[in-house]
Amino acid sequence: MGQTVPNSWRRGRxxxxxxxxxEGVKGNGxxxxxxAAATPRSxxxxxxxxxVQTSGREEVGSGASSAPSQPGAPVQKPMxxxxxxxxxxxxxxSQGAAGSQPVVGRVERDGAVYYDDRExxxxxxxxxxxxxxxxxxxxxxxVGHRYHDDGYYVEExxxxxxxxxxxxxxxxxxxxxxxxxxxxTPGRVFVNDRHGNVAVYDPATGFAxxxxxxxxxxxxxxxxxxxxxxxxxxxxxxxxxGQYCAACxxxxxxxxxxxxVRATDAxxxxxxxxxxxxxxxxxxxxxxxxxxxxxxxxxxxxxxAARREASAAxxxxxxxGFNPDHGRxxxxxxxxxxxxxxxxxxxxxxxxxxxxxxxxxxxxxxEEVTADLGVARSLGFKSFAVLGEPGTGKNFVLEQLSAAxxxxxxxxxxxxxxxxxxxxxxxxxxxxxIVWREGKVTHALKNGHRVVLxxxxxxxxxxMTQFHNIVGSGNSAxxxxxxxxxxxxxxxxxxxxxxxxxxxxxxxxxxxxxxxLGRALADRVEHFHMRSLSAxxxxxxVASQANKFLAKAGRPEMKNDQAKKCIGFFEDLRxxxxxxxxxxxxxxxxxxxHRFAAFRALGGREMxxxxxxxxxxxxxxxxxxxxxMRQTIRHHYDRRFGRG
Length: 644
Fold this sequence. Notes:
Blueprint: H1 30-38, E1 45-46, E2 49-50, E3 106-109, E4 112-115, H2 117-125, E5 132-134, E6 140-142, E7 146-147, E8 163-164, H3 167-175, E9 176-181, E10 189-193, E11 198-202, E12 207-210, H4 219-232, H5 239-253, H6 257-274, H7 283-312, H8 324-333, H9 347-350, H10 364-378, E13 383-387, H11 394-405, E14 409-413, H12 420-424, E15 425-430, E16 433-438, H13 440-446, E17 450-454, H14 461-465, H15 468-471, E18 481-485, E19 491-495, E20 501-506, H16 519-522, E21 526-529, H17 535-552, H18 560-578, H19 590-615, H20 623-641
Parallel strand pairs: 13-20, 13-21, 14-17, 17-20
Antiparallel strand pairs: 1-2, 3-4, 5-6, 7-8, 9-10, 10-11, 11-12, 15-16, 18-19
């Protein structure tokens, strides 16, 4: 299913540092805003999120030079359409509601919890000093740690050249999964995070809340505050607003540890100078969450009812309502869409049904393989191998076939380090007892899912041997089973569901007669070769995928001639990798190609080259190799696109 990048950014923000004079224009006064307004903006955009344009060092640390807002200072609320000054992170002034006293420490008032400036940053940087925040990409942010390296900090609004690891800011923004604007209240946003929480924030009132029932600040609320603030600052001309918007957009476009720390540092700099109070766990905001959840539940029920009604009317092999190619997949695949409410699928299983991609384009080779698969399935075969060069669309076609069917889909990348227990499960100790922990593949095969093993020919022999009994013999689905060891160490078998399918995918280069699976396993599966796409088909696929990103930015669609140039550049980089070009430590894949095409369409030459350098991880190469690779990238780029 993948992550859902918030789709509510209308355009990206470019950031240009303030004119330098000593340390540049600092603070939150008129001089700083006038300097910002006088700085021209060129509107550089990166597929709907924003391009970052800086000079010299990148992110800075936790020491702000700006004085905090004075109690009672007036704060202008955003005007309709997002213009004007944001009340910060909240429209409440630092004196709060009319007639209330300035906040000192932690205060509960007017149905919300407030923190003064000192307490806010104490909680962010010091109260949990040394703790680690686990991020979605597998990395961590250490609370209180100073990040001195380039790229981790911002410069405007601060004196110190580092960023400090923050708890609520990091965990909150990292958690943001999907953002939805309130249709009834402009500016207010609802945020679903990756931990299953829902939070709300309204920049016009400064009120935040979530469904946790805690009368306190939470990471979920902080995530809503950060993206809500980003939205409200869209047309704010100040340097610190532009700096935060650019850093936030860069993180949402490429969600890694460095970009996250930079975004939190930019928010810190802006909030110290420009921000007002935030009322956390506000009573009305909590009520808003309840109303939001009720509305989403109603919508889900109505959508499910509509799907059931549509499914009942769809004959076997007919179009399923996603797009014409999804309908053809059903017909060519020889199956009907699985009915909603199938008893074998739990709620967790249904969450693994892929979403149909409306940009899916079926090439001739996709149609051929899918048709052949359909025949094999109608004959009772359940185990297949699909081989093809990288970029032919093997995995994408299988995923979209599962989407068209409504079938749970498990896709796993394997290599020489993959272990049997990782896929099938193992005995483990829980509460002092030895218990069985079921593996993902075991669960999927027990319950009628489709399991796809990528680069299957690179897995260790002991892993592939485990699949001999799973694939069974020919087209006999009844003879399939999984062999595991029980907690007592005894060999036991688990039946494979009669509808479960296993698909091995791999690159055929150098795999020999047995397809790289080993003769014993290769003889038990049906093999299908996905031919390379024609130039026109490849361009159509790349353009369709890039246009998904460009649509979010409201930009014109990419034409096939530009997509062909992107493919040529991609092939040049892959050739350099396969020729062991010094500095080429990572081979580009097609997912990267689609993102690169979008970035290039909006950001031009220099941004496209920077995205290449970041993806290829030149920082891990030696200085000489990295510089040689930079020259190679520029040579390939200019050969395909020119220097424009």
